[in-house]
Every structure is written in structure tokens, then in C-alpha cells.
């Protein structure tokens, strides 16, 4: 019963390095999201997807790219990491619309950029 | 201005107290509303959806006022286990369909 799985769970990057965070869900959800969480800032939406092959910008998209080539996977890329991207990253998926929609989250990826 | 705003707190209350959290949202295209709970360094989890008519789940009551673009959460008879951060969440419709926006969260500490 995996739900939403994020890999890796922890990572330390040097400034300028690139990396990809993987989010996988096994609930056949259409909607997927990437957030970052910094102290006192709550969760801020980076990018989201409303279906396979679609992506859209969230509140803080700069410095990140995403792809949704398969319905179950949503990838977040950092092309050239900066210390300001040190954060906890959460992925989520949901069925989409409606008052009873529930978003399920992965356990988070703790990224440090030095 | 953030699309969803909450008083960050912290709210420090004794066990058994009643505590209320407020949230305002700015986008009139907001379709659905939720309260999530987040424990320290863990992922957020759905606490309850918020319906226009108001809804209750045990000690928790949620209210929505679409005219004022205001959402509230009331916790009665607080327990130590209620200590957490409570996140107000809005799901958008229209040109931003599917966009799920979180407030910055309100921290609750329930003390013996």
C-alpha cells in the first residue's frame, strides 16, 4: 500500500549541480503537485499537473522544471541548484475536483544546497 | 498578498480549551476548501473538508463564508494530541483549475 512515494528522502547538493526528484503514485490520480516548505512559510506550490502530459506553474516556479510523461510519475528538476532552494519538498496527488477531494502526500525530500 | 492567509500563531492553550482558527482567501474562483493537519517534520494530512453549510466531525467544526471569503476551524475540548500545525487549503477552478493553495499554517500547542 505505497500511496505516494518520493525519492530521494535526503540529498545534499553543491551550488550549480542539477538533480531530479521523483514522485510516484499508485492510486491512479489525475492531479499531482510539487510544493516546497520553508520555516514559517507553509507549503508553496511550485508546479502542478492536471493529467498525463500537462504541467502548469504554481506560486514559486522559477528555478524548477517538471515533467509528467506517465500518469503515475511527476518529476521535479533543478537545473542549477542554489542555496535558496534548500528546503523540504513535498509531492502530492489527488483525484482532482470537488469538495471531497483529498490530496495524499509523500514523506518529503530534505534538500540542502551548499 | 498571499492567496490564502492565516494567523501563524502559535496558539498556546490548556487542555480542554476551545480554540478557533481563521483563514481568508483572495481568489473568487476558489472552488473547494479544506483543513489539513501537519505534525512536526511530517507530511500534511486531510483533517476535514469545509462545506458551505458548515460541517462538524467530532470535536472539530468548520465554517465557510463565501461572501466574506473566510474559513474557520473550531476545536472544542482540546487534547494534547491536537498539538500540530493546521493548514487552510483552497482548490481553484477556472483558468487555474486544479491549483491547490495552502496557507502558511497556524501552530497549536495544547498544554497539560
Structure report:
The complex is a heterodimer of chains A (about 110) and B (about 110). Chain A is mainly β. Chain A has strands at about 5, 10-15, 20-25, 30-40, 40-50, 55, 65, 75-80, 85-95, 105, 110-114. Helix content of chain A is about 0%, strand content about 50%. In chain A, strands 2, 4, 5, 6, 9, 10 and 11 form a seven-stranded mixed sheet that branches. In chain A, strands 1-3-8-7 form a four-stranded antiparallel sheet, with no helix packed on it. In chain A, a hairpin with a 3-residue loop joins strand 4 (about 30-40) and strand 5. Chain B has strands at about 5, 10-15, 20-25, 30-40, 45-50, 55, 60-65, 70-75, 85-90, 100, 105-110. In chain B, the strands form two sheets. In chain B, strands 2, 4, 5, 9, 10 and 11 form a six-stranded mixed sheet that branches. A five-stranded antiparallel sheet of chain B has the order 1-3-8-7-6, with no helix packed on it. Chain B has about 110 residues and is an all-beta fold. The interface of A and B includes residues 35, 42 and 94 of A.
Short description:
Chain A has no helices and eleven strands.
Main pleated sheet of chain A = 7 strands, mixed
State the distance separating the first and last CA atoms of chain A.
35 Å
> In DSSP terms, counting alpha (H) and pi (I) runs of 4 or more, how many helices of chain B?
0
Indicate the overall shape of chain B: globular
Which structural class best describes the helix and strand composition of chain B? mainly beta
For the secondary structure, the number of strands of chain A is 11
Give helix and strand order of chain A, one letter per element, not per position.
Answer: EEEEEEEEEEE
The residue-averaged pLDDT of chain B reads: 92
Amino acid at each position: 500500500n505505497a500511496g505516494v512515494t518520493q525519492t530521494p528522502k535526503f540529498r545534499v547538493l553543491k551550488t550549480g549541480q542539477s538533480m531530479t526528484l521523483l514522485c510516484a503514485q499508485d492510486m491512479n490520480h489525475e492531479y499531482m503537485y510539487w510544493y516546497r516548505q520553508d520555516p514559517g512559510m507553509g507549503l508553496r506550490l511550485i508546479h502542478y499537473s492536471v493529467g498525463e502530459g500537462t504541467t502548469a506553474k504554481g506560486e514559486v516556479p522559477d528555478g524548477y522544471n517538471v515533467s509528467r510523461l506517465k500518469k503515475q510519475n511527476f518529476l521535479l528538476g533543478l537545473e542549477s541548484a542554489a542555496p535558496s532552494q534548500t528546503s523540504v519538498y513535498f509531492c502530492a496527488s489527488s483525484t482532482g475536483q470537488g469538495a471531497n477531494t483529498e490530496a495524499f502526500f509523500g514523506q518529503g525530500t530534505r534538500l540542502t544546497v551548499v | 498578498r498571499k492567496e490564502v492567509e492565516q494567523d501563524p500563531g502559535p496558539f498556546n492553550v490548556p487542555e480542554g480549551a476551545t480554540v478557533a482558527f481563521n483563514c481568508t482567501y483572495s481568489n473568487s474562483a476558489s472552488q473547494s476548501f479544506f483543513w489539513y493537519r501537519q505534525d512536526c517534520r511530517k507530511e500534511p494530512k486531510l483533517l476535514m473538508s469545509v462545506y458551505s453549510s458548515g460541517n462538524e466531525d467530532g470535536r472539530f467544526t468548520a465554517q465557510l463564508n463565501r461572501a466574506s471569503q473566510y474559513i474557520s476551524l473550531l476545536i472544542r475540548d482540546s487534547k494534547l494530541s491536537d498539538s500540530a500545525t493546521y493548514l487552510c487549503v483552497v482548490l481553484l477552478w477556472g483558468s487555474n483549475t486544479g491549483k491547490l493553495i495552502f496557507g502558511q499554517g497556524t501552530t497549536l500547542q495544547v498544554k497539560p
